[in-house]
UniProtKB/TrEMBL annotation:
InterPro entries: Beta-barrel_TonB (IPR000531), Beta-barrel_TonB_sf (IPR036942), Plug_dom (IPR012910), Plug_dom_sf (IPR037066), TonB-dep_rcpt-like (IPR039426). The keyword S-adenosyl-L-methionine does not apply. This is TonB-dependent receptor. Keywords: Cell outer membrane, Membrane, Receptor, Signal, TonB box, Transmembrane, Transmembrane beta strand, Transport. The keyword Cytoplasm does not apply. It holds the Pfam family TonB_dep_Rec_b-barrel.
Length: 839
């Protein structure tokens, strides 16, 4: 039983928490009704704590995005809606990532790396997914159609959830307790009549005696956008040209070998938006078995078929120069070549480069399947005021088959040049026979597997003068494995693409955890958490969390959290084979002809866990004299030490160039006179991150002019972001992404019972180009959306994103198209619409 006073206080606290959680759309808490004084108040679990509560109040800041807000703003994938939040930074992979993404979509909270943000599904771990041996979750495996809401915990939470929650947690809550049938149709297109998206989904649910069963299915398809189809795209310039070059020289019409003066425009083949096709099935069930026992389960299956496309393969091979006319497996330098200055190097070789356009563009394809099922039993014990127990099991599996059409075998290419020197050096198109001889389809496969068993108990221990002391305790066992098998030609190093080794490994971990919530006074509450993990790889880790909430007045709540965290090294970091990557770098010696330089990356089985400290402090203000207004202000700081990282290759190049005796030359395997043929970066535990900032939210709901109005504004001001001692605050770069000082989202909605209109804008502040020091312009995107409720059964929605068709800001070392597509909109103005039918 609960008193009227306590009920009123709970309602008041819930209003404060609407502000504290920075709710993007109102109406989210309509189901959290507090009962009259003769009924029991429902207890719920909140992201960031395992203690079930009578309200949503915690010391940690949480942003909640409802399904209605997701649809209204035209988001067709989870990564899009997350990357639009002001709390995101860096450059998380997504639909605009064409080079090296394998079609995955990730989240990068605070720009600290996708591997440092934990993704949960209904409060339990989601299996890592992608092309194999992945360190984070592919958000493509979670269809928007199944989402009820998304909760973003912007605080370190390792003491509650374990590894990976250093920067925070994204908890995706699926639709459940649904009764009836719902059909959704949604689609979009750009103002250039490309990049179309479409989705159809159905939801069916029914109630039973003491239970509910909800089932859903979704199909979505996304079309491509070619880079050169946008007028603002500057033509690309690559030293790999279709006619080929020998030691950087080409033949002119007179047969003379002269310096190459032309480049290849790769933007005609590369994507700004990658195509994607997804099929998803999902289900939720809740069934009361008796008065004190409840069975819950959820299941998810997603098949993703995706593509990326890059310009035809750039091939670079070192060819042996013949010493005599009778030598074979070598090239003979003609008089015209030697007259032009072409000569063998110290190893007796010359470099031949060619863009193999005769084979066609490189087409990357992925066919991935992701399964997840989670089931649990929960009950109540008649101890004290009642304690709740639960035991659950989660299984997840991801497998992927990947291919790259029109790949080139470098070994066969060299042999073909030796056998057909005139054909290769003439500058003419290659014959079909030659192309068929040197080209192949690169095939690889990989996967991930997750098993988790956990059990917990929570409730109230005893009463103190200010209320009940609540607790949660539990234990968990988790087993993870992963593998990735590149094509045999790639493993052997015979491909013109970078060499890569296979990856395979596994680990398990046993954990115990506890939380306690103590009301010191009616106004001051403390939250304490402690967790112990024992890994089969690096060993043991202990983390803790302390949080305080203080209701200074009925209008003002103060909150603060201090916590430690950790991230266990992933399977790919521990057991990954050496892999190569062509990174955009600047060669200070000027030896390299192209900005994409091959770097060999290596893993280390002896890696230790990363460690972190996090701090947040802020206030929630909901003034009683302005009905419907709430404000939150939070300071946050995250510090990571022993970070698992590849050292900054560009910084290593610059240090070695400045001082040839510097240890950087040895660390990165840089040879004499800037020889970068064995440029290497090894994973180590010497990395660090230190970032801090301020979050501000204003939410105001009021009535005026016979309309209901809702205003929401989110601002993140970045005070500092340092990594490995380098200050990236307010910097942008193609390799690291963007760390803008100011990001702001504004939203205003007006409407009545049957309709509403939403105007929103998204601001990314001015930054400095990391490579040149030039200013990179700020940008403001404007959006407009509307919803019309035709009947109780039919709802129509439509909108325009990027109304003014803003062009992305230019970045000198951009990852694609002279910009960073993961940060800026490269598609342009987009129109979208949808219809929902309920039965």
């Amino acid at each position: 039983m609960i008193s009227v006073t306590l009920t009123a206080k709970a309602v008041r606290r819930s209003l404060l928490v609407v502000a504290a959680t920075s709710v993007v759309t109102t109406g989210l808490f309509s189901s959290l009704a507090f009962a009259a004084d003769d009924e029991k108040v429902e207890r719920i679990e909140v992201t960031g704590s395992r203690i079930q509560r009578q309200d949503m109040e915690t010391a940690s800041p949480v942003t909640i995005i409802s399904a209605e807000a997701i649809r209204a703003e035209g988001f067709t994938s989870v990564d899009q809606l997350l990357q639009a939040q002001t709390s995101m930074a860096g450059a998380a992979l997504g639909s605009s990532s064409n080079n090296g993404s394998d079609g995955v979509a990730q989240v990068d909270l605070r720009g600290m790396g996708s591997q440092r943000t934990l993704v949960l599904l209904n409060g339990r771990r989601m299996v890592n997914s992608g092309s194999g041996a992945d360190s984070s979750v592919d958000l493509n495996s979670i269809p928007v159609a199944m989402i009820s809401r998304v909760e973003i915990l912007k605080d370190g939470a390792s003491a509650v959830y374990g590894s990976d929650a250093i920067a925070g947690v994204v908890n995706i809550i699926t639709k459940k307790d649904f009764d009836g049938f719902q059909l959704d149709l949604n689609g979009s297109t750009s103002s250039e009549n490309d990049g179309e998206t479409g989705e159809i989904s159905g939801l069916y649910g029914f109630n039973t005696d003491g239970g509910n069963y909800t089932f859903g299915a979704a199909y979505s398809k996304r079309e491509s956008v070619i880079q050169s189809d946008r007028s603002w795209t500057e033509p690309g310039y690559s030293s790999f040209i279709p006619t080929g070059s020998l030691d950087g020289m080409v033949q002119n019409d007179a047969g003379e070998w002269v310096d190459r003066t032309t480049g290849y425009d790769y933007t005609t083949s590369s994507y700004y938006q990658t195509p994607n096709e997804r099929y998803s099935l999902f289900a939720n069930m809740v069934q009361e078995l008796d008065n004190n026992l409840v069975l819950t389960a959820d299941a998810l299956y997603t098949k993703r078929k995706s593509n990326q496309q890059l310009a035809p393969q750039p091939a670079s091979v070192m060819l042996d120069v013949c010493d005599t006319d009778t030598d074979s497996s070598c090239v003979t330098l003609t008089d015209a070549m030697t007259d032009g200055g072409i000569a063998a190097d110290d190893t007796g070789r010359v470099e031949y480069r060619r863009r193999i356009t005769d084979a066609g563009p490189r087409i990357y394809s992925q066919d991935t399947d992701t399964y997840r099922i989670s089931a649990g039993l929960a009950g109540e014990l008649d101890i004290n005021t009642g304690m709740n127990w639960d035991i659950n099991y989660t299984y997840g599996k991801n497998k992927a088959d990947s291919s790259i059409d029109n790949s080139i075998n470098a070994t066969l290419l060299s042999e073909s040049v030796y056998a057909n020197q005139d054909a290769w050096f003439s500058g003419d198109s290659l014959t079909d026979a030659i192309v068929n001889d040197i080209s192949y389809t690169d095939n690889s496969n990989g996967g991930n597997e997750l098993n988790v068993v956990s059990a917990g108990l929570n409730g109230e221990l005893f009463d103190v003068s200010a209320g009940a002391v609540a607790f949660a305790i539990g234990a968990e066992y988790r087993y993870e494995s992963g593998y990735y098998n590149p094509d045999e030609i790639t493993i052997a190093g015979d491909s013109t693409a970078a060499q890569q080794d296979a990856t395979s490994g596994n680990y398990d971990v046993f954990s115990v955890f506890e939380e306690v919530s103590v009301p010191f006074t009616e106004k001051l509450t403390g939250e304490f958490a402690l967790r112990y993990d024992d890994y089969s790889t690096f060993g043991k880790a202990s983390t803790w969390k302390v949080g305080l909430t203080y209701e200074a007045t009925d209008d003002l709540m103060l909150r603060a959290v201090a916590a430690t965290g950790f991230r266990a090294p992933s399977i790919s970091e521990l057991f990954g084979g050496d892999s190569g990557s062509y990174d955009y770098l600047t060669d200070p010696w000027g030896n390299e002809q192209d900005p994409q330089i091959l770097v060999r990356y290596t893993s280390d089985e002896d890696l230790e866990a990363e460690e972190s400290d996090s701090y947040t402090a802020g206030l929630v203000y909901s003034p009683s004299y302005v009905d419907g207004l709430s404000l939150t202000l939070d300071y946050w700081r995250f510090k990571v030490k022993n970070a698992i990282t590849y050292l900054d290759v560009q910084a290593g190049l610059d240090a070695c160039y400045a001082d040839a005796s510097d240890s950087a030359c040895e660390t990165f395997n840089i040879g004499s006179n800037g020889d970068l043929s064995d440029l290497t970066s090894t994973l180590t535990n010497v990395g660090s991150q230190d970032t801090s900032g301020i979050d501000f939210n204003l939410a105001y709901h009021f009535a005026a002019l016979s309309l209901d109005w809702k205003i929401n504004n989110d601002t993140t001001y970045l005070l500092n972001f340092e990594q490995e001692g380098i200050d990236y605050t307010n910097m942008i770069d193609g390799n690291f992404g963007a760390y803008a000082e100011v990001r702001n989202n504004f939203n205003i909605q007006a409407g009545q019972d049957s309709w509403n209109i939403i105007y929103s804008n998204r601001y990314i502040g001015q930054m400095e180009d990391l490579s040149t020091g030039d200013d990179v312009d700020a940008i403001l995107y404007h959006n407009l959306a509307g919803t019309y409720y035709v009947t109780d059964m039919i709802t129509l929605s439509a909108g325009v994103k990027n109304i003014t068709d803003e062009e992305p800001s230019s970045v000198s070392n951009g990852s694609d198209g002279g910009t960073v597509p993961e940060v800026y909109d490269t598609i342009g103005r987009q129109y979208y619409g949808g219809v929902t039918v309920k039965f």
